[in-house]
Amino acid sequence: MSSDQNKPRQSIYDSTAPSTDTRDSRIGEGADDRFNSKLREAFGSTPFILTKFDKFMNWVRGSSMFMLQFGIACCSIEMMHTYAIKHDLDRFGAGVPRASPRQADVIIVPGTIVSKFGPRMKRVYDQMPEPKFVVGMGSCTISGGPFQEGYNVVKGAEEIVPVDIHVPGCPPRPEALVYGIAKLQERVANGESSPVVVKPYELEEFGDLPRDELVQKLADQIDEDDLVMRYNWSDSP
Amino acid sequence: MSTGLEPRRQVGVDVETTEEELEELIGDRALARDDHKNAPGFVIRPDEVQDVLFDLRDEAGFDHLSCLTAQEYADRYESIYHLKKYADPTQEVSIVVPTTSDEPTSQSAEPVFRTADWHEREAFDLVGIDYEGHPDPRRILLPETWQGHPLSLDYNQTKPQVVSLTEHANPIQPDQKGAESDTMFLNIGPHHPATHGVLHIKTVLDGETVADVEPDVGYLHRCEEQMCQSGTYRHQIMPYPDRWDYVSAGLLNEWAYARVAEDLADLEVPEYAQVIRTMGAELCRIASHMLALATFALDVYGDFTAIFQYGMRDREIVQDILEDLTGQRLMFNYFRLGGVAWDLPEPREEFFEKIRDLLDELPAKVAEYDDLLTGNEIFQVRCVDTGILEPEVAKQYGCTGPVARGSGIDYDLRRDDPYGYYENLEWDVVTEDGCDNYSRVLVRMQEVEQSAKIIEQCVDLLEDWPEDDREIQSNVPRTLKPEADTETYRAVEGAKGELGIYIRADGTDKPGRFKIRSPCFHNLSALPEMSEGEYIPDLIASLGSLDIVLGEVDR
After folding, report:
1. Domains, chain B, ranges and CATH?
2. B378 touching chain A per CB within 8 A
3. What CA–CA distance (Å, rounded) separates A127 from A131?
4. Which of A112, B101, B177, B469 could serve as A140's disulfide partner, Cβ 3.0–4.6 Å?
5. Which of A197, A200, A199 lies closest to A222 in space, CA to CA?
6. Which among B295, B349, B351, B356 is positioned nearest to B323, based on CA atoms?
């Protein structure tokens, strides 16, 4: 269908000169070519990205999530299988388990939380830099699962940390976890899981905020006796 | 290395001890008889525990304190010491020690068996019996600020207890830093990539040498015993064993419950079901040992890309087969009392084909692991002669499974206390005499091959099994109500060692007391013996070679 007269000048379609010339003149030579990234190449001669900064950041966050290497119970075995070959979570840009919470964006909570471990998990969560996201894996993180009636079992991860995505199952199959994480990425990219959310339990930190209607409403929802963790925010790292 | 714990005399170890001899040995110290279904039981006074246990250990050769069960009755507390012989685990005796409700104090058995240390701490923690002369009477599973003893009768199990971080002892508080000495306190866990879960190890270092190690467990104490005590025998308990040792060892754990309940209620299991059970259990053992190998490589090398992924690859294959068989990847819930839930999947040929493929490829894979891992010089430098666990020490701590067999203790319940179809099959118990981390890895790798051998024979049997004789479950009453005060303790060879269960029936359709004897709990308690005086990387290697699962340690 293409005829010669519809084609642009040969100097344009046959050569990369028009874009590279502009780019080179913009970037310059020598020490500064550290900006000469793949991204730049993709943008070509256009020096501008026409998007909202927030939107761009959300896309970046959703596309490269560092997970915390964090195993609690049975679900962590399936979580390992999700990271490992066959299921390979890395295909979705979310498969780098980091051993330190300081380097992680996402914490998957894989298992039953008991009274002795709850505060420790809270501390690990606190050590993660903002923005951070939580995937609750398995029934135990939803309600305590099969151990709900146990004297020592915390009835769901939501009592301790805010959970963005719940993946049900006992344990969930790796496919289910992949789906949950893909959903989280989607939400992050769409800005639905906003990076900083004030959860009711965090209100103590903002105790000196002016008590407007919203703050008051949230504060009223807290039943102090029901808080599993009475957390000491001033000493927290 | 002398521990001062060696038996004073080695008399009559291999000789069978009859009930009359036991009666004679215990003599007047026996207040009464309280026989269990598995063993003769003797009731003794709470201040004669050490006396009797020393005699049983040294005179009669009962050198294995398999389990300690504590429970509360309406009118008394009771500790039961389940003793066995490493030489012959079918020789059992139960020592029952009642104490009054007002003052539940009993003499500690710790000087006789080191493993009683953790056991008595657990009994104090959950039931509330005090042990006089115990070197370290603290809680072990629950936080130290916990109020009450959850398995005692007057405890309200529905009332949650708030335990804040500030109420926990802070392991790195200033007074631990040791301004006077030149040792350093190092806190490992409970969230740490090398601890295989939520284990907390308090370590004191002298330079790079480990001066003191204290494993702190209980970060995954999920009240398994309470859960099992509130479920009915027939169907409600079986899902829980899957979650004790959750490293794909589900069927092995289910067998522990199936065996004890079938023993308690005198249920028959059809031969066909026994063969299926044996095959499934050995598949689980392969999956479990593969993970042990994979994570051990991760601990020792930090090798996430090769051996770890290879191990996972092989586990996926096994899990696929188990999924075909049971319908689940990890939490199988496949055994039923008196048999299994359903027959092999149709078409059977395809299923057998899958297993045969696995078995055919296994030797090449094992050779690959040998190349990558056990034949590797760096690996050998890390593992040979580190984490030494002498056989006598291992026995003192009640170690079983690959850990004991890596120390040269020839002890495998599949052979010594046969169940299922094992006694009709050709296979060997693997032992290594190295007593070090390397031996334990070797034992696991060879056990994979032995399991493959067992599976192959099971597949042969199943292929030729006549079609009209495929009975998968015997006739079991809808509601099981074993007679009140029937007590039994039975163990099977799990992936990590001797997994035992004690059940006391109280005449209802739920157990009156359900106590789990976890192999990992015992193996982990030997960690200080293995790592003190060695370098800190050897501590991590030792921990990896113990292959603990915290779900089973804490229950």
Report:
1. 19-132 (3.30.460.80), 224-554 (1.10.645.10)
2. no
3. 12
4. A112
5. A200
6. B351
Most B CBs within 10 Å, among A116, A159, A223, to test the B interface? A116
Name the residue ranges covered by the structural domains of chain A: 10-43, 59-189, 198-237
What are the residue ranges of helices labelled H in B397-518? 401-405, 413-416, 437-463
Alpha-helix residue ranges (DSSP H) falling in chain A = 10-13, 17-27, 38-43, 53-63, 74-83, 118-127, 140-143, 174-189, 213-221
| Residue among A82, A107, A109, A151 with most chain B CBs within 10 A, to mutate | A151
Name residue, tokens 């193996």.
B523
Quickly list DSSP for A162-228: --SEEE-SSSPPHHHHHHHHHHHHHHHHTT-S-S----GGGGGGGTTS---HHHHHHHHH--GGG-S
Structure tokens at B80: 């039961």
Lowest mean pLDDT among A3-7, A59-63, A221-225, B358-362: A221-225
Which residues are CB-contacts of B348 (< 8 A; sequence separation ≥ 6)?
A: B462, B463
CB contact under 8 A, B218 and A112: no
pLDDT at B23 (0 to 100)? 80
B11 interface with A at CB cutoff 8 Å: no
Pair A121, A74: CB distance under 8 Å:
no
Burial (0-12, 13-18, 19+ Cβ within 10 Å), B64: buried
Indicate the residue of A73, A99, A153 with minimum beta-carbon distance to B246. A73
In CATH, the architecture of A59-189 is 3-Layer(aba) Sandwich (3.40)
Q: CA A136, CA A120: separation in Å to the nearest integer?
A: 16
Question: Phi and psi (nearest 5°) for A104?
Answer: -110, 150
| Six token digits for residue B304 | 């996430």
Q: How far B421 CA sits from the closest chain A CA (Å)?
A: 29
Dihedral through CA B132, CA B134, CA B135, CA B136, nearest 10?
-110
Question: Looking at the predicted structure, is the pLDDT value of residue A186 above 70?
Answer: yes
Measured CA to CA in angstroms, residue A180 lies from A67, A71, A78, B500 at distances of 13, 17, 13, 38
Write the DSSP symbol of residue B82: E
Residue whose structure tokens are 């914490």: A107
What's the pLDDT score for residue B255? 92
> Which residues on chain B are in Cβ contact (under 8 Å) with A111?
220
Reply yes or no on whether the pLDDT at B451 is more than 80.
yes
**pLDDT tens digits along A141-169:** 888 888 888 888 888 888 788 888 888 88
A229 vs B contacts (CB less than 8 Å)? 164-165
Q: What is the DSSP letter of B28?
A: G
Alpha carbon separation from B286 to A73, B280, B359, B452 (Å, rounded) = 20, 10, 11, 8
Select the highest-mean-pLDDT range: B356-360, B423-427, B466-470, B480-484: B356-360
- pLDDT score for B8: 38
CB-CB: which of B142, B158, B315 is closest to A116? B142
Residue whose entry in the numeric block shows the structure tokens 């779900």: B551
How far apart are alpha carbons B551 and B555 in whole angstroms?
A: 5
